[in-house]
Amino acid sequence: MILDTHDKLHRYAGFFRDIDPQPLFEWLKSCRDTPPGQKVDFVGDKLFAKTLREDTGPGEGLKWEAHREYIDLQYIVGGGEVIEWVPAAKLTAEVAYDEKTDCQFYAPTAADALLMMQDGLFTFLFPADGHKPLVADGLNHHVHKVVAKIHKSLVVI
Questions:
Q1: pLDDT confidence of residue 40
Q2: Mind spelling out the 3-state secondary structure of the chain?
Q3: Which residues of the chain have pLDDT under 50?
Q4: Which residue from 4, 39, 104, 156 could staple onto 8, CB 3.0 to 4.6 Å apart?
Q5: CATH of domain 2-154
Q6: What is the pLDDT of residue 7?
Q7: CB count, 10 Å around CB of 26?
Q8: Nearest 5 degrees, angle CA 68-CA 18-CA 34?
Q9: pLDDT at 157 (0 to 100)
Q10: Pairwise CA distance, residues 92 & 14, whole Å
Q11: Residue 143 main-chain phi, psi, to 5 deg
Q12: Interacting residues of 63 by C-beta distance below 8 A, sequence separation 6+
């Protein structure tokens, strides 16, 4: 897991191999008006992004998740949320892994860390990172964010 500010995103270009992440990085600077739910392809199914405007809520009603094939770049452009974090290895599967969505959901557990996400912040969540997004932060009832999906074959990890 990496947590940083929007103005530092360019520092992570070196994580990518065989592609230039600058088109994604440049698009993120101007994505605030992109309609929610719209998918933007950068390298087909290997690198794409979706904009989301979601309600936040109590953590007890939300699911832990992790991915096997993709890294999430969660980039906050409005509102805020808490993303609860725990190593995926500590989680117990609740349902079978879904290859189509690259998502595994897990049984409730206590968080090891809380990421207080707000406009101006982003996080990279790797396959080893269990996370529970959309937890209310006590200030915002909604979050406007972009989730970029980066296939692990495009990143040096």
A1: 96
A2: CEEEEHHHHHHHHHHECCCCCHHHHHHHHCHHHCCCCCEEECECECEEEEEEEEECECHHHCCEEECCCEEEEEEEEEEEEEEEEEEHHHCCECCCCECCCCEEEECCCCCCEEEEEECCEEEEECCCEEEEEEECCCCCCEEEEEEEEEEHHHECC
A3: none
A4: 4
A5: 2.60.120.370
A6: 97
A7: 11
A8: 70
A9: 77
A10: 33
A11: -135, 140
A12: 94, 105, 106, 132
Instruction: Report pLDDT for 52.
Output: 97
Select from 89, 44, 41 the least CA-distant residue to 64: 89
**Rounded to an integer, what distance in angstroms lies between the CA atom of residue 28 and that of residue 42?**
12
C-alpha–C-alpha distance, residues 127 and 89, integer Å? 10
* Residue ranges per structural domain of the chain: 2-154
Provide the token pair at 107.
């049984």
